[in-house]
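Tokens as discussed.
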């Protein structure tokens, strides 16, 4: 048998006589190794059965494999040859493992949801380790079926949980709080045209506009603009109004007071009220039933409009709604004296003032 085949099959080499010059030593050397003729070479089938998975699992602990190989003459007893034979045996086992796949103890792997490879439990069952395979038993090739990992991407769980967006509940529509309308207090400063009739225009304006509240009707019959000016502290500032309506000048014309003096008194009233943070609204005087007074009334009203523009305050014209083309009263808007307002005339004045202040946002 060739030497390489004998070395591959772990067949012990024939004993050679030691080269000693002494014949007695040479004769004694025959007892150092057994004759080759008495050692039966092991068969390949016996070696395969010894290296089967079941037999390897049964002998993997405690050095049983090396002891068995030595007992069955696969590994010589000599230390050096025993080491060489063990190395060759391990190489042969490694070659078989590379051809047949993983053996017992290596474990099969399977994919896990986290992406790592988990090792399955391959502890030998009692049936596999109870009986040892005999040396003369012939076994088939070593085959181990390993499950192939599933490569279907759709069935592989994602390593990260899928975050499902939580739908946000639609907020219930909230009702906007209704803004409380701002109520402005006011004082009406004037003469009998402000004090009369029984329900004068300041009271009608209070009743028709919820944003205006009358705190004092300071209309005194027979008053001139000078007398009205003198009452500012007691009849106006004492009530601390937001708005001041001023209607004066008719009695000034009847008493012969010059237009310049009348305008000077009205200017002092306006300036004083503005100094107290009061909004001033200046009214023109109404007409009369006598056509001879129309020119004087128109001239005084023109000066009142100019004063309002100069002081940058609001002016309300109540003359035109009450007068006809000749500049005199409509009869329905005045009482029998042709000077004072009727109930209908007082309502027209209140409506005219209300329409004007609504444009101002009051």
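Sequence:
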């Amino acid at each position: 048998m060739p030497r390489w085949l004998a070395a591959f099959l772990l067949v012990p080499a024939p004993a050679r006589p030691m080269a000693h010059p002494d014949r007695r030593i040479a004769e004694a050397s025959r007892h150092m190794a057994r004759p080759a003729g008495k050692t039966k070479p092991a068969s390949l089938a016996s070696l395969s059965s010894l290296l089967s998975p079941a037999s390897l699992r049964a002998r993997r602990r405690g050095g049983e494999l090396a002891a068995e190989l030595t007992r069955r003459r696969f590994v010589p007893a000599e230390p050096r040859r025993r080491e060489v034979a063990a190395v060759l045996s391990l190489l042969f086992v490694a070659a078989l493992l590379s051809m047949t796949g993983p053996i017992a103890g290596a474990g099969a792997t399977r994919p896990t949801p986290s992406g790592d490879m988990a090792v399955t439990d391959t502890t030998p069952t009692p049936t596999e380790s109870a009986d040892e395979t005999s040396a003369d038993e012939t076994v088939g090739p070593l085959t181990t079926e390993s499950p192939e990992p599933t490569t279907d991407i759709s069935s592989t769980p994602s390593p990260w949980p899928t975050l499902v967006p939580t739908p946000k509940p639609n907020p219930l529509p909230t009702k906007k709080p209704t803004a409380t309308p701002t109520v402005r207090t006011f004082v009406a400063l004037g003469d009998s045209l402000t004090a009369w009739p029984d329900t004068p225009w300041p009271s009608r304006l209070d009743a028709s506009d919820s944003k205006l509240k009358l705190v004092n009707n300071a209309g005194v019959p027979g008053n001139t603009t000078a007398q009205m000016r003198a009452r500012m502290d007691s009849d106006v500032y004492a009530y601390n109004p937001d708005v001041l309506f001023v209607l004066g000048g008719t009695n000034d014309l009847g008493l012969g007071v010059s237009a310049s003096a009348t305008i000077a008194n009205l200017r002092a009233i306006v300036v004083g009220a503005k100094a107290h943070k009061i909004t001033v609204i200046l009214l023109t005087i109404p007409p009369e039933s006598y056509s001879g007074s129309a020119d004087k009334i128109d001239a005084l009203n023109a000066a009142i409009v100019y004063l309002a523009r100069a002081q940058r305050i609001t002016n309300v014209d109540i003359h035109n709604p009450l007068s006809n083309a000749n500049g005199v009263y409509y009869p329905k808007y005045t009482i029998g004296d042709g000077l004072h307002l009727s109930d209908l005339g007082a309502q027209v004045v209140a409506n005219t003032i209300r329409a004007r202040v609504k444009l101002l946002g009051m």
